[in-house]
Amino acid sequence: MRVAQVIGKLAAGGVEAVVNTYYQRLDHTRIQFDYFIDADSPCDPPQKLIALGARYFRIPPTTRPLARILTLRRIFAQNHYPIVHAHMTTLNLPVLLAARWAGVPVRICHAHSTSAPGEGARGLLKRLLRPTARLFATHLMACGQATAQWMFPARLLATGRVTILPNAVDVSRFCFCEAVRVQARARLGLENALVVGHVGRFMRQKNHAFLLEIFAALRARRPDAVLLLVGDGELRADAEARAAALGLKSCVRFLGIRHDLQRLYCAMDVFILPSFYEGLPVVGVEAQACGLPCLLSAAVDAHTAVGGAVRFLPLRAGAQAWAQAAEALASSQPVREAGAQAVRRAGLDISQAVRQLSGLYEALATREKSI
User: Fold this and answer.
1) Does pTM top 0.90 for this prediction?
2) Of 25, 120, 302, 309, which sits most exposed with the smallest number of CB within 10 A?
3) Which homologous superfamily does the CATH classification assign to the domain defined by 2-168+349-370?
4) How far is 1 from 52, CA to CA, in rounded Å?
């Protein structure tokens, strides 16, 4: 069975990371994925997934809705997909319309994020599109309770219409290792530093401007502090300019897109995610799997916290309070090897969650065939 996964731009982001993690752990003799990505995606499809049997189709971006719908409808019809799984949250309408038009029996509307005040026109557009996203869906899904509550009406949640599929991670990839930590810090020249970390696309949601203010306040308290920023995006140049303006150029490392996150998590002493909004952030789960103390925005789903060394702060608390909390967490010295087990107990290990997804796909496809 081939399932169509519509994920939007391929940009080394959280949604594709989640879908990829599930795909890599599925039984590929039973289920395969076809990925639908925007034609203007900045990243190329990963060859390791293609080698496993995945296929990639480039489609017109969301800025060309009619061309997008027509292209999707044609490819969906040609391939006779039993399931289309749309991961575009409030932008799922064109995808699911094309799927219904093509006669796809199972159409999943999946929500991965929320919104927040201050987004202006973007936030208004999300709220306007939110009720349309599920119009042509047969099934509803969300990455966590907070996202489900934001995306779908309470009556649908109360009747069990929304399935929670967690943003699970491959815990075995992110387990803490002291030897890896020592080696990674030596390679980065950070043997004696207080290493602060963040992983996220450079976009408004991730709030890098405030993160740099936090780090400036922390640096005033701890001159040995270094900030590692992993990721890329349209606002990276702005963040680099802001770091320079704050006099942080020598102690902020812009690492770009990396594929050695476990090594970097091991090297870090505290992880900070001051997002304006999140669903259930993959990076927060990965960091905890590595036993890393985490300081998260109060706008992040509280279910993200599965270990003891996690603290939530409202953004209005200010940079000084965030810096103080980050320093305290970095000094808390948790047993980092315990992080992996905490994530497993929370049901966020991919080996557990993949059984839920594969069972759901097979049950839905079988039921539709019998109708």
Assistant:
1) no
2) 120
3) Glycogen Phosphorylase B; (3.40.50.2000)
4) 14
